[in-house]
Amino acid sequence: MSGKHLKCVLTALAAAFLTLLPALAMAAEAKKLNPGNTAWMLTSTALVLFMTIPGLSLFYGGLVRSKNVLSLLMQCFAITCAVSILWLIYAYSLAFSDGGGANAVVGGLSKSFLKGVTVGALQDDIPETVFSMFQLTFAIITPALIVGGFAERMKFSALLLFSALWLTVVYAPVAHWVWGGGWLGAMGALDFAGGTVVHINSGVSALVAALLLGPRRGFPETPMPPHSLPLTVAGAAMLWVGWFGFNAGSALKADGTAGMAMLVTHMSAAAASLAWMFAEWARYGKPSVLGIVTGMVAGLVAITPASGYVGPVGALIIGIAAGLVCFGATTYMKQVLKVDDSLDVFTVHGVGGFLGALLTGVFAASELGGVGYAQGVTMGGQMWVQFIAAASTLIYAGVVSFILLKVVDGIAGLRVPANEELEGLDLTLHNETGYDI
Amino acid sequence: MRLITAIIKPFKLDEVKEALHEIGIQGMTVTEVKGFGRQKGHTELYRGSEYVVDFLPKIKIEVLCEDAKAPSIVDAIRGAARTGEIGDGKIFVTPVGEVIRIRTGERGEEAI
Question: By the 8 A CB rule, do A265 and A244 touch?
Fold first, then answer.
């Protein structure tokens, strides 16, 4: 080959290589770990675990009578541990693996014992270990929320059994429906961080449990005020901060979406807190600290499904709506229906989650500051999908919880005997007292 | 010997203690109690659940003395504990059968 000819060939080869280089780079990038995203997701995971232990534990612990404070802490802690083990063994797989023919409703067992979740395995551009852990913290807090519905009267053995079954038959499938490749996600339902998977799920299950177990002895005539609102408020503050991991972490990236998710989460919390506070002030004459933190929770619940899709003004409206609607629902449940959902799980998480799911459909609109709908989808169309997602979760969780509670009742009995309930669960179920003053 | 028991409003404790000190009373026993008489309770509200709380916090003071000192002690307590509002409390004077000092075994007025 002549020198000139060689030069041409080499140039052509170089040109070809340079053209291919971006493609080669992209092919490599799709599977490459993003350290920024990974760092944020590691942090988010810690924040969301913090929401259960000790956030929710303290929030709930302070709301019950002192003779039962340890029972709440024990239940939250035990659920944290038990769910973690079950997640490892099969629940992660059920929620997030490919279910083959049944993939529309549930995953399979291919990731049992976290098979394939190795040091190097990636879920998009973060380690799958981190993704699995992040999702685990959601799986932990959801059954822990239900505890509020049957507080101060449920047997510990029954609680463990129920929580394990519920994780398996309710949580994992619903998580799969929305996030794991199941039918709700495929339908285009917008649920950024778990308005359905976490809040409607736990809310309606708590209501069913409260109805099945029956009210606490002495309810509603006997005063059962919170024994330590300082604990409750401390827990509430931890929930607000932790919720940044819950919502902004659901972006699975350290980017603008996460930033907006954090912003809207915060604003909804603030708006809902004040809305509840003012509503209470107007209705009862004085603003209370329990009221303002409950409003906060309502706002955080409602913004959960919306957090990746709405803008600041949308968050403001969602927060105000959540504060007012959940305030009304709680008052109605307590004073009119007189159902002993001891810690108001249904009226805050169930109602708030349902409201949030619907309002996500509204405020996702780009004219209202949201990210806009998918190609060809209208607001009405999206709201219908949101309604389907919320309603199907509500019905499924409600019905299956009922069945599971009946099963557990048959095996272990649900409720403690009357004398144990009167003496207090800390002493009778755990042989301990919370305060030795 | 007499046992003087006084139920008073909690914030009056320091004043009563001072008044007793001024008339030479060196010891007393104080307990936190709850109760009501003519003073009404209050309402508390938690997430829509309203409770009427009848019992009010009070302080119970117990002082032991010789028979002769009882009237001045009663006057001192009453003067310091009184506010003029309903709920000021009551004072009971009861006879005491025996008094023993644990450390020394002294009995009767020596043990006061």
Answer: yes
